[in-house]
Amino acid sequence: MHALRAAAVAVLSTVLLVGCGPSAPGGGDDAPPKASTAPGTSASADPGPSTSPGTRPGTSPGASTGATADPHTSPTAGRVPAPGETLVRVTRTGGIAGRTHTLVVKGDGSWTQLDVKARPTGTGKLSAAELTALRTALREAGFARLPRFVTGGPTIFDGYFYAFVHDGHEVAGAQESLPEGLTKVLAALPPFTGGEDAP
Questions:
Q1: N or C: which end of the chain has fewer CB within 10 A?
Q2: Which pTM value belongs to this model?
Q3: For the chain, what is the HEC assignment?
């Protein structure tokens, strides 16, 4: 019985010592433990995501500001999508024929036209200059600051309705309501259908 208790104490001691190893923020492997130098700093040595009150005093102000990012800033803002990732997806509905077409542009400039049933109807690839122009238009449109639905402007009968998806943001609106930034995005896109009609 005494041998079992002694073994349990040894295992617990080892676990506690490993948990308090030199992985604290701000301390490298060569840095000596500083848990006893100031009150409250021992809590910051805990690498786990503890939510106890003791962890707050040892946390630097910079660490807490990172958790509360600006809601208007996308976590992927400024990041160039990988070649296979979608750069922008725009769906156009309406017009005289009342049809729906979607255009998907990937990070490498390749694009696919889709019909209302999401079946591919055409493909192509933007030139380097065209892709740069599209990325510039997308950045300058400020998707993070735009409302989910844009409104206003005179009614255009048989006009188009657009839905944009870019960098985690969705913006939709009738063509007469689109801000200048989104009209520039449309101008930088390839055509929605096989013909060379305007976006």
A1: N
A2: 0.58
A3: CHHHHHHHHHHHHHHHHHHCCCCCCCCCCCCCCCCCCCCCHHHHCCCCCCCCHHHCCCCCHHHHHHHCCCCCCCCCCCCCCCCCCEEEEEEEEECCCCEEEEEEEECCCEEEEECCCCCEEEEEECCHHHHHHHHHHHHHHCHHHCCCECCCCCCCCCCEEEEEEECCEEEEEEHHHCCHHHHHHHHHCCCCCCCCCCC
